[in-house]
Amino acid sequence: MSEWVPTTCMRCAVGCGHKQLGVDEGYGVDVVRGDGQHPVNRGLACQRGIEESADPDGQWLSKPLVRKGGELVETSWPDALERVAERFDAALRRDRDAVAVLGSGQQTNEAAYALGKLARGGFGTRYYDANTTLCMASAVTAYYEAFGSDAPPTTYDDIPDAETHVVWGANPAIAHPVMFRWIRESAGEDDSRMIVVDPVETDTATTADEHVQLDPGEDLALARAVLAEIVDRGTVDREFVDEATDGFDDLVADLPDPATAAADAGVTPETVADLAAAFEDRTLIYWGMGINQSVRGTDAARALIDLCLASGNLKPGSGPFSLTGQANSMGTRVVSCKGSWPGQRPFDDPIHRSEIADEWGVPVGRLPDDVGPGPVGTMDAIDDGPVEAVYAVATNPVAGMPDATAVAEKLDDTFLVVQDSFRTETTELADVVLPAATWGESEGTVMNMERTVSRVRPASDTPPTVQQDIDIIAAIADEVVPGLLPEPPVDPSAMFDEFAALTEGTEADCSGIAYERLDHELGVRWPAPEPDAEGGYRYHESTDDGDDWQFATPEGTANFSDPPDPDPLPEPTDEDYPLTLTTAREADGYNTAVRSRSVDDLGPVTARINPETVASELADPAEFDGEPTARLETRRGAITAQVDPDPAVPEGLVWLPIHHPATNDLTVPATDPRSDEPNLKQCAVRVVADPSLATYESAERSSVDGSSGDEPRDGEGATDPEPVELTDGGEPR
């Protein structure tokens, strides 16, 4: 009989502790439940995390594949790795930037660290991303500019103490159900409330005390209107501003008139006044992709932080709290060498570069001079040079990147290696497919959005033809840059110790964390410079003399933003494209939904459109027999969608699920000038009646041979967990 194995859910970044039970025979996870002992969730668990851990609907990859005669066919691991090594080695001999690497927040810290070490210290490429640029880069840039360090200052412990919860451009009821329960419980207390700022009446908005329905893309205008109102009302915390911040007066001198900015944002002055009043309480402001995924993402995130600074909401029970999507997005930011060296060491600092090179045993000149342009710029470098080979690990850019048809065409022109657990739109184009272990099969650690590090443990072995992420990375390193990484199989705890040692003395110090400590405590929040130390609220400390603030900036103060000069939105509506397209998550649409759908049976994409817009652009919805079907067109492509006439979506807006592969055929590849994050939330679209087609077709993308993953790899088969919305394996937080 299998034993319960404590682990961490890898669906989203809440970081819930799970217990998993492996199947008695074969491979796979039988039962999953919340871990009542875990310090993050105390037994709470959401339905999707349980289902996607125990019984994912995706199609397993179970054997290595190589492309022969235009088809992917099974091969041996030695053959697959030899092909990869030969092509990577030949490309790197021509140009160290010729190999691009795309990682993911779905990897463990150990695998992400190994991949970054291979990309930066082995290949020396600047064309490397850990997937954070697609979701969190604008928030990261804002944190660095404001505080000198990445990650929210807040923790989950602050949620019960907040009096007002402002949820801006996020939908945690869908994306982070366990965390949303804590928010909802706190907001339900006497003298507490929740305000949601979103163009769409989301599931979160329906439970809020107030829903602010601004115009799409006008978050920056609204945030500046609220700051101007705070100044006009005289509710600025001058003591905090004078003692702990810089730049306030310059920013105030550039603020707009609140009423004018309110009109620009599409809201009333009364709405702005109410939002400003909210910051007189202890206020937590949460934001997500509705802020980050914009050409104005960094400016908008800075503006939200400005609201916290001006109102003095930067101590326990208050502050800015960006909501991370992928399970280990925080971990990849800290460990993977994308935007900084491990532990947030500055990328361009010669002392840190030299120390990293010495520890890795590589010439300092091999390390790239800059962090690189992010995924969109990497795709451009396929067209313009020098990228000629791409190594994608646990990521699906053909579905997840803007202007996805163009992305598919570019990747099809490269030597593409895809390492994943499931078939995806990207594996369909690969020249080599490497099957990797997934949740319940992997060993390592992850970091959640509040900086807590916890263990990931296997409840099941893998088939002999499936390998751990970290071992595949090490095997490629052994062929191309021998000696850089240990030969596989790699001891994950030793890899964690190597990473943690590199963080000693940094802002993200993890040197006091080790596997033995995590086995005992289950979760430890950084910074943790000693074996008995753990981080709490950052930058603030209560002393006998009052409040003390210390920030990671050179001056030791927090920075208000410079007066913004935002780029125009990339595609305003016009006569040809009169509607605005926006994108967001569905409940089963995490991580491009590869765990909850089949590549061969995508089903139609559903466009949510206000009934008045449907009537003006198509016909009266009452005249349709069933769901109407329409053709959605942008300047990059066209898809056919089922139309859901939905009054929760404002007039003039078209809502699409971001992780359906059809959606990003339409989105625009414009990026934020400071963070490189794509503008996935707004572009111009038109709706054309087209009843002849009802589903998204992907026939142009070549198919994987049927042996690649249609069969389950779990032996006897994992049983379905009992369907639940939210389970509670212990006392609620």
UniProtKB/TrEMBL annotation:
GO terms for molecular function: 4 iron, 4 sulfur cluster binding; metal ion binding; molybdopterin cofactor binding; oxidoreductase activity. Coiled coil: none annotated. SUPFAM superfamilies: ADC-like, Formate dehydrogenase/DMSO reductase, domains 1-3. InterPro entries: Asp_de-COase-like_dom_sf, MoPterin_dinucl-bd_dom, Mopterin_OxRdtase, Mopterin_OxRdtase_4Fe-4S_dom, Mopterin_OxRdtase_prok_CS, Nitr_red_NasA, Prok_molybdopt-oxidoreductase. Keywords: 4Fe-4S, Iron, Iron-sulfur, Metal-binding. Residues 2-56 form the 4Fe-4S Mo/W bis-MGD-type domain. It holds the Pfam family Molybdopterin. The keyword Metal-binding applies. It comes from the Archaea. GO terms for cellular component: membrane. Residues 525-576, 612-649, 691-733 are annotated as: Disordered. PROSITE patterns: MOLYBDOPTERIN_PROK_2. PANTHER family: NADH-QUINONE OXIDOREDUCTASE SUBUNIT G (PTHR43105:SF10), RESPIRATORY NITRATE REDUCTASE (PTHR43105). NCBIfam families: Nitr_red_NasA_Halo (NF041323). This is Assimilatory nitrate reductase (Ferredoxin).
